[in-house]
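Continued from yesterday's entry.
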Amino acid sequence: MSIQRTASEAETEQVGAALAVQISPGAVVLLYGELGAGKTAFVRGLAGGLGVKPEQVSSPTFTLIQEYRGRMTVHHVDLYRVAGREIDDLGLDELAEGDAVVVIEWADRLPRPLDGAYVVRIADRGGDRRDIDIDAAGAHAPARPVHSAR
């Protein structure tokens, strides 16, 4: 585990960009944090580190999945408005099987954690200050399917 403290949105983006150099195609990144914690800023940095133009990155709350193309394709998923069996309908298994990177905001809505995923927890410390805890311990194991229990 690695906790990094940031004092601005730009610094939060830099932490995301630093993770981008460590991940490879097929990686899954699970993001946890309250509303306004900086999850999308983190994704903007991560996607930028993968060659995506930062201005293309926005929260996919209403579209659920955004796709960005850079050196690697990034599938940016927002589970804020879905739960349970609705998650199966998103086809996350297929996204995770490809050569893209899958980043899931509101990962606490998944029916269960995914083995092998990077886990990023962002805590709002007031103002623009954030604590970002990145756990890559299982990141080299294959990710488990995303299906909910039936």
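--- second protein ---
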Amino acid sequence: MDTAKGRLVGKHDAVFICQIAQAEKRLQLGQHHDSFEILNEVKKHLETLSDNDPKVYAHLSRAYATYYRRKEDYENFYKSSLQFLAYTPASELSQAEKKDWSIKLGMAILLGKNIYNIMELLDKEILQSLIGSDFEWLHVLLNALGRG
């Protein structure tokens, strides 16, 4: 990792994506605390710079979402996932990924204690991936909760 960082001097976005990948790997290994520290460090550095590539923010938000989902922190998972979707065009996600994110976000709404901004999810194109699937009931339920 240090060798890669050395070759990427001056290419902040690439360094950040490498660090996020390292945090994701640690998360897969069950090293939650180490992963979270790396993500917070990247976030802190990103806040000091301007003109960062939106893909860096997308990767960071996805990694935070994964972390919070593993910790069963549904509120922060929901917030991080919405940030990921804000930085990631729906056209870049496969139909399976759209469905997966929709199901996870829908379950977070149902399981989270203080999630009130359901309309943000209802406005996302990815939610349409549930129509015609085994999870169409979730689409109907979320619409009923959000639109009344």
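The helical segments are 2-7, 12-28, 32-48, 54-70, 74-87, 95-111, 118-122, 136-147. The chain is about 70% helix and 0% strand. Will compare against the first tomorrow.
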